[in-house]
Amino acid sequence: MAVTFWKKKPAEQPTKPKGFWREWGDAILFAVVAATLIRWATFEAYTIPTPSMEHSLLVGDYLFVSKLHYGPRTPQTPLQVPLTHQTLWGTAIKSYSDLIQLPSYRLPGFSEIKRGDVVVFNVPFEDQHPADLRTNYIKRCVAVAGDVLEIKQQEVFVNGKQQVTPPQSQRRYFVDVPQPNDDLKNAFQQQGVVDYYAQGGTPQPNPAFNTPVYMVDMTATTAAFFKKQPYVRSIVNDATEPGKAEADVFPNNPDYPHSTPAPLVNWNRDNYGPLQVPKAGQTVQLTAQNVPIYQKIIQRYEHNEGITVANGQILQNGTPLTSYTFKQDYYFMMGDNRHDSLDSRYWGFVPADHIVGKAVLIWMSVDPNAGLGGKIRWSRLFNTID
Questions:
Q1: pLDDT for 39-94, tens place per residue?
Q2: Buried (b) or exposed (e) across 139-167, using 16+ Cβ within 10 A?
Q3: Where do the catalytic residues lie (predicted)?
Q4: How big is the CA angle at 125 (ends 164 and 108), to the nearest 5 degrees?
C-alpha cells in the first residue's frame, strides 16, 4: 500500500491589494461607525447657544456630555443619517424617517440624576420630531421624582428645605443712572454683564423708561458691586410679588405651546408651587384642579392610547379617568439665569426617557462678541461643570 508522507503545498495566489477608493471607503466607514457608537454610548459634544444658564455656563461654551452617568438610551428612531440630529448638515432637510419608531430603553449608568446636576435633555413640549430627536436643552435639575418643589421670593425649596443657589446664577436687575457713561460701559465689560441681543453684547438703556435705565441679568455679587458705584443712581431686583398670577407659567399654560394661558393658580416665576414631581409607580386621584398638571403626562409622554381632554376631564376611549399611575420618573429643570430661561416653570416636567446625559466638562469656550484676538476664553478651557 502506497502512503504519501509529504506533498508539496501548492503555491498560494497573491492577495489582490485594495484599490485607493476602497481603502478610503473602508476607513471612512470605520470612522463613522466608531464615532456613532462613541456618540451614542459614551460622550457627545454640545454647545451653549443661549444665555439661560449664565453665568454658570456661557454662550459659546463647548461641552462634553456624558451618556455613561445615567446610561445611554437605545435609539427610538433607527432610520437616521449617522452623526446628525434633526437635519442634514447646513440644510433644512430632515435627516431621519419616522416610519419606524421603537420602544426606548435605558442601559445601566453609574449614577442617578441628582438635584443640582446640569442635565442635557430633549425638550418634551416639541411634537414635530420624535422624542429622541427633539431639540436639546440644558438646565439644572432642581427637583427629582417624588420631591415637592416650591419657589419663595426667588429661592428654591425642596421638601421644605431651602436649596443652595448656584453661586454664578443670575437674576434681572434695573440699573438706573443719571446718564450713560464710559465708566458704566467699561464696568459692564469687566464684570461680564452681557446683552447677547444687543450689537457687540453691550447693554443699552431700555426705551420703556423715561430716564436711562438698563435692564440686565447679573449675579448677586455683581449687583452688590454696582450698588457701590458713584455713577449708579439705584439698582433694583426685578422681583415678582407673591400671589401675583402669571398666565404663562405651568400649569396656567398646561399644554405649552398649544394651550391658551389662563390664571388657574396664583403662581409666578419667582413664587411657585408647592408642586410634587411625579414618580414611577405613584398613583394620583384626578380632579378638575390637578388635570392641568397631569394632562400632558397622560396624553403625550406615557404613550397611552385613546386619551382626550375635555371639560376639565381626562378620558380614555371616552371614559373619564378618576386615577392614574405614572409609568416613569419625572424631573423639574431650571436655568441658572433665572429671569431669562424657558424651563419647567413654563412647560412642566421632563420625562425620564427624554434625558440625554450629564454635562461634565467645558473643552472650549468662544466669546461671540470679542474681537479676533480675544475670542477664546482661555480660563474656561477644560473646566469641570458643577
A1: 889 999 999 999 999 999 999 999 999 999 999 999 999 999 999 999 998 899 99
A2: bbbbbbbebebbbeebebbbeeeebeebe
A3: 52, 139
A4: 65
Q: How many Å is the Cα radius of gyration of the chain? A: 27
| Lookup: cell for 77 | 428612531
Measure the CA–CA gap between 269 and 264, rounded to whole angstroms: 15
Burial class (CB in 10 A: 0-12, 13-18, 19+), 305: exposed
Active-site residues: which are they? 52, 139
Query: What's 82-106 look like in SS3?
Result: CCCCCECCCCCCECECCCCCCCCCE
Strand, coil or helix: what is 4? coil
How is residue 114 written as a grid cell?
A: 441628582
Whole-angstrom Cα distance, residue 376 to residue 368?
9
Helical axes 182-191 vs 220-227, angle rounded to 10°: 160
What are the C-alpha distances in Å from 302 to residues 119, 128, 299, 358? 21, 17, 7, 23
Q: How far is CA 313 from CA 47, 280, 319, 345, in A?
A: 41, 22, 10, 23
Question: What does the pLDDT read at residue 5?
Answer: 47
How far apart are alpha carbons 269 and 338 in whole angstroms? Answer: 8
Query: What is the C-alpha end-to-end distance of the chain, expressed in Å?
Result: 84
In the structure, what pLDDT confidence band is assigned to residue 25 with cuts at 50, 70 and 90? confident
Contact 68, 111 (CB under 8 A): no
Task: Give the DSSP letter string of 246-268.
Answer: -TTSTTTSTTTTTSPP--SS--B
Closest CA to 331 of 70, 64, 107, 66: 70
Judging by beta carbons within 10 Å of its beta carbon (0-12, 13-18, 19+), is residue 334 exposed, middle or buried? buried
